[in-house]
Amino acid sequence: MDRWYVAQTHSRAEETALAHLLRQGFRAYLPRYRKQRRHARKTEMVDRPLFPGYLFVCLDVARSRWRPIRSTVGIRQLICDGERPLAVPEGVVEDIRARETDEGVVPFTELPPFEPGDTVQVTEGPFRDQVGWFERLADKDRVIVLLNLLGRPMRVPLTASSVTAYL
Q1: Is the model's pLDDT at 165 over the cut of 60?
Q2: Residues of 126-164 as b/e, b for ≥16 C-beta within 10 angstroms?
Q3: What domains can be seen in the chain, in order of their start residue?
């Protein structure tokens, strides 16, 4: 049965890793968001990875040859539980994909009223009902929240509107 798994990439190598995985015949997904960038007195909108340093790979670990993923250019490792890849909870990737615009980016809006260290709860999306800690603003429409995922705390970028104070 096909499931989504997380592959960690080398620093700023998400696009390279995605291209090499696709070239090898794997189904891979790199969610993106649009960010305003200022450089040399110019402002432009650029697409950036939604989860910097990570992308998703869909495969059936019982039937597929998944070990070559670990030596793919741009890939650091598959997130595993022991020797076997650890599957992403069902519906997470599909939920992210459903939120994409026609341009293939996940939109973000609103600014949060939180301070670093505040306990927050995710109210919508694939991480709904997860409790974590507000870390910082990522840009004008996104926040970084520490959530306990895959057995360890991970920084997760979320829309500011999908996070509320946890009481």
Answers
A1: yes
A2: bbeebebbbbeebeebbbbbebebeeeebbbbbbbbbbe
A3: 3-99 (3.30.70.940), 119-165 (2.30.30.30)
